[in-house]
């Protein structure tokens, strides 16, 4: 069974209502919801470092594989995920292309 991940980028005050609406819509399409969903699933990318880690893990890329694609040392990728090294605009642009997403989520 495939897994569907959701992301909510709107105001925090409306997150739970939007999530409930999305779940209701998915149920109307005969999707099965295994667990009671929580809004924490939707709020995964509060920081660029967490966004980087989430995208890398979901795409099943190792630190080494991602560092090769970025043409940087894996140590630097690890430090960016830990939040001890900032993600430069150039690296963010590359990450956006690799993960097919807006590069600004990594800045």
Structure notes:
The protein is mainly α and 107 residues long. The chain folds into two domains: 1-43, no CATH class; 48-106, lambda repressor-like DNA-binding domains (434 Repressor (Amino-terminal Domain)), CATH 1.10.260.40. The protein has five helices and no strands. The protein starts with 14 loop residues before the first helix and ends in a 9-residue tail after the last helix.
The number of strands is 0
CATH superfamily of the largest domain: lambda repressor-like DNA-binding domains
CATH secondary-structure class of the largest domain: Mainly Alpha
Structural class based on helices, strands and sheet pairing: mainly alpha
Integer tally of domains: 2
Give the C-alpha Rg.
16 Å
Order of helices and strands: HHHHH
Number of helices: 5
What would you call the shape? elongated
Strand content: under 5%
Question: CATH topology of the largest domain, which one?
Answer: 434 Repressor (Amino-terminal Domain)
Main β sheet profile: none
The parts where pLDDT drops under 50 for at least 5 residues are 37-44
The rounded distance between the terminal residues' Cα atoms is: 33 Å
Output mean pLDDT. 80
The CATH architecture of the largest domain: Orthogonal Bundle
Helix content: 40-55%
């Amino acid at each position: 069974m495939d897994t569907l991940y959701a992301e909510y980028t709107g105001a925090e005050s409306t997150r739970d209502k939007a999530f409930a609406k999305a779940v209701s819509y998915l149920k109307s399409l005969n999707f099965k919801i295994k667990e009671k969903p929580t809004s924490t699933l939707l709020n995964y990318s509060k920081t660029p470092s967490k966004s980087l880690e989430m995208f890398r893990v979901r795409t099943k890329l190792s630190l080494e594989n991602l560092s090769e694609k970025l043409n940087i040392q894996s140590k630097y990728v690890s430090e960016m995920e830990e939040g001890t090294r900032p993600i430069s605009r150039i690296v963010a642009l590359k990450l956006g292309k690799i993960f097919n997403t807006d590069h600004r989520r990594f800045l």
